[in-house]
Every structure is written in structure tokens, then in C-alpha cells.
Amino acid sequence: MSLEETDDLHFVGKAEDLVLSKRSVVTVEGRDVLLIHHQGEFYALDCYCYHAGTSLETGDIEELNSKLCIICPKHKYKISLSEGEGLYRARDTSLTPPRVRWFSKGPKQRVHQLSLIQGALYLRLSSRGRLESDYYQGERGKVEREKAERAEDTGAEEGRGWSWSRSNETEEGAGLELEP
Ligand code: FES
């Protein structure tokens, strides 16, 4: 049996193609996954930002708090490429004197396993637990992404409330998010 035929391992392209393109979006079992090649490493994560479903495909990549992160083009949330961890900066008042530092929100964006086998890339989807980025996947996710986009465009109060309350962000975490 070839690798392509195994149930949980999906051929998603040649490594050399991703090295050239740097990014590509593949759909596996109805899930849209962003593949990234950056500084010699391959990464795979859910394509749509856990916050409000914007595609991360054009997000900048920066090293923040010693972690490579993709920055969502919409509201600039920072997501670590390896673990899908949400990072934000805020003032830590427990320090003397208080100063701004990085905090972690824990895993928010689902990351997947990408294996390089004889020049080909194979994806194994992660399905462990429930993560916020799951919300924007599949047919229902498409509807929710469009809803979030409309709310953003119109600035409708209802849309904003829905977006913030859907996420498990604490008021504090959301309110204190600062640009690096
Ligand atoms: S949609 Fe990504 S930060 Fe808001």
C-alpha cells in the first residue's frame, strides 16, 4: 500500500514546490489547512484565524518571545507556528516596576503534523480536543466566516458582540492586547 492510500496520512504536495511557493492552502477531509515553509522548516495549521476566521495565508511571520509566530492580517493576533498558541503583550502589574511582557493564551489554533518522506509532504490531521480555530472550518465554518466578515464590514454592534463572546478570550486578555 502506498503512503497516499493510508487513512490518516494525506499526500499534500512535493516539498520542493512548497519551498518555492513558501505557502499553500490544501483541503483535507473538508478542512482547510495552511502549509508554510519558513527558515528551512515546514508547518501546517488551520487556515482561518481562531479569533474571527480571517485567512492567515498572507500573515507576516516574526519571532516573538523566542517563538516563530504568524500575525493575522486582520486584527494582528499572534499565533505560534509550532503549537498554535495565542500570544499577546500586556502590562504585568505584579512586577516592580510594572512592565509590558508577553503572555500566553494557550493553544488556540489547531496545528497538524507535516512529514517529509522522500521529497513528498504528508499531512496527518490533528483532532485532539476542541480548539477555537475548529469553529471556522467546514461548511458551517464558511457561514460563520462570512458572518464575521459582514459584521466587520458594517461594524454592526451585534456582530462585534458575537465575535468576542464566541471566543473564550478573557475581557482582560482581549482588552490588553498590545502591538509589539
Ligand atoms: S481575525 Fe485574526 S486577529 Fe481577528
UniProtKB/TrEMBL annotation:
Signal peptide region: none
Segments forming domain Rieske: 9-102
Keyword tRNA processing: no
Database matches in Pfam families: Rieske_4
Alphabetized UniProt keyword annotations: 2Fe-2S, Iron, Iron-sulfur, Metal-binding
InterPro entries: Rieske_2Fe-2S, Rieske_2Fe-2S_sf, Sol_Rieske_ferrdox_dom
Acidic residues bias: start-end ranges: 170-180
Comp. bias regions, Basic and acidic residues: 136-160
GO molecular function (one): 2 iron, 2 sulfur cluster binding
Protein name: Rieske domain-containing protein
